[in-house]
Write a structure and sequence with these properties.
flat; disordered C terminus
Length: 142
């Protein structure tokens, strides 16, 4: 598939849709690098063809943020969610538009993930420093 994507430079609308679906498959399989590379190619193409403020471009930007979030790259995800939020606020007249609410929720989830990761790291370090055994096995429930 990468050969065809490079060959057509993802200029065809149908190929853009197919590339988006393939990126989603990569993401669902945990193939973050492949999903990221393909999504970035799509984003670049959409920006050049549709423009930076087009809803499809914003959707692809959100997809890239979700890839970063799912792969634990919370800071990068938060930056993209903030960028998307700015674009959406400029495009929509009212602040309670569903797209804006979704982007705000995604940003909040990313911030929560960052905090949770920091908290779990501190808990693990404290557990190791006190010598009270290893990191709790049930930590995934927190």
């Amino acid at each position: 598939m990468n050969y065809y994507i490079s060959m057509f430079a993802i200029q065809n609308e149908h190929l853009l849709v197919a590339a988006g679906k393939l990126a989603m498959v990569y993401s669902s399989q945990g193939k973050w690098t492949e999903a990221e590379e393909l999504t970035i190619k799509m984003l670049e193409t959409q920006k050049s063809i549709l423009g930076e403020n087009h809803p499809d471009t914003s959707s692809t930007l959100i997809n890239l943020a979700e890839i970063y979030n799912s792969s634990g790259r919370y800071e990068q995800a938060a930056e993209l969610y903030l960028q998307t939020l700015e674009l959406m606020r400029a495009a929509h007249q009212y602040s309670n538009h569903p797209d804006i609410l979704t982007a705000t929720f995604n940003l909040g989830t990313t911030y929560s993930n960052q905090t949770r990761g920091t908290w779990l790291t501190r808990l693990k370090n404290k557990s190791q420093r006190t010598g009270k055994g290893s990191f709790p096995k049930h930590i995934h429930l927190l």
